[in-house]
Specification:
Elements (H helix, E strand, L loop, with lengths): L1 H36 L12 H10 L4 H21 L5
Length: 89
């Protein structure tokens, strides 16, 4: 009986340690995402004139939609790498 209780207690400790490790990893990912969120302040990188940007891109055969989608994919891929633990964005 005592051996069974000891085994159950050790298993519970292992689960608790694993949960703590996962929580720490999640906090680190959130920290990186927060840093990324703060990396482009509006006082340094003001919002562009999207109508002008669309016209300038169109002159070169590109669309603002394609550029926006590419940028969003890059951001989301960086977040995926953080979540998967394969490296910072």
């Amino acid at each position: 009986m005592l051996l069974a209780l000891k085994a159950r207690a050790e298993a519970a400790e292992d689960r608790a340690e694993a949960a703590e490790d996962r929580a720490e990893a999640a906090e680190e990912v959130l920290h990186h995402i927060r840093q990324w969120c703060d990396a482009y302040p509006l006082d340094i990188f003001p919002e562009p004139d999207f109508i002008e940007a669309r016209a300038a891109l169109a002159e070169r055969g590109m669309t603002l939609d394609a550029l926006s989608a590419a940028t969003a994919r890059r951001v989301l891929e960086g977040m995926r790498r953080l979540i998967d633990g394969t490296g910072p964005a």
